[in-house]
Amino acid sequence: MRPKKSITPLKRSLISKYQNEYQKF
User: Which top-level group of life is the source organism from (predicted)?
Assistant: First the structure.
């Protein structure tokens, strides 16, 4: 079990959401 792997998808999701909001701007 690696916690880093779980954080990887979470961070990717956050970045995707951030980029989406930025594009809407």
Answer: Eukaryota
Predicted TM-score (pTM) of this structure: 0.44
Tokens describing residue 10: 């979470």
φ/ψ of 2, rounded to 5, equals -120, 120
The model's pLDDT over 1-25, given as tens digits with 9 standing for 90+, comes to 566 666 677 788 888 998 888 776 6
Rounded Cα distance, 1 and 7, in Å: 12
Using the structure block, give the residue that is written with the tokens 């930025």: 22
